[in-house]
Every structure is written in C-alpha cells, then in structure tokens.
C-alpha cells in the first residue's frame, strides 16, 4: 500500500488545475486552491513556458473557484522573483516574511499577498 504525501492529499482534497501544452504533450502549469486556508498554492510554470500566460490562466481559475466558494479574498505567498507578476495581476503585498520549506530544507524569503474577489 502506498502512503500519500502531503502534496498527494492536497491534490485530492482541493481544486487542482493543470494546463497541458498539446505541442509538448506535457503539463506546463499548475496550481490549487487550499480550501482550509483560502490560499492559492503550487502555482508553477515550466521555465521554458513562462511568458505565455499560463500562470495567469491558472490564477484566474483559482480566483473564480474561490469566489464560487464564497471566499472574499484570495491569499498567496510569493517568492521575490514572482512578486511583480502577482502585483500585475492585482494582488497587494501584506507583509514580507520567511517560511520554512521542507523541500528546500531552508527558510525562504517571500511576500504574503492578497486580492479582493
């Protein structure tokens, strides 16, 4: 029997979106809405596919999903290199912070951000 990881459980228990590129035949972007916290999570785009609007599509779908579930705001933690993207999408910075990433096994600098829905 296989044990579920935290990521597996997040995919099962929350609305999770993936964009496939038909030319590449692979997923190129993803993200999910954490229903317990109201946070957009795991918004990723393959580096070679950045700038094509995929992350924006994922983000718009997460905003729609959150609004349908009666959230009034959507939150996320953005890395410094992604902060400008989220500002352009209408998000506002709440605070700078650090969080511990078990994947990186280090404290990572980020910006807590939100948008009104």
UniProtKB/TrEMBL annotation:
<feature type="domain" description="N-acetyltransferase">
    <location>
        <begin position="1"/>
        <end position="117"/>
    </location>
</feature>
<dbReference type="Pfam" id="PF13508">
    <property type="entry name" value="Acetyltransf_7"/>
</dbReference>
<protein>
    <submittedName>
        <fullName>Acetyltransferase</fullName>
    </submittedName>
</protein>
<keyword id="KW-0808">Transferase</keyword>
<dbReference type="InterPro" id="IPR000182">
    <property type="entry name" value="GNAT_dom"/>
</dbReference>
<dbReference type="GO" id="GO:0016747">
    <property type="term" value="F:acyltransferase activity, transferring groups other than amino-acyl groups"/>
</dbReference>
<dbReference type="InterPro" id="IPR016181">
    <property type="entry name" value="Acyl_CoA_acyltransferase"/>
</dbReference>
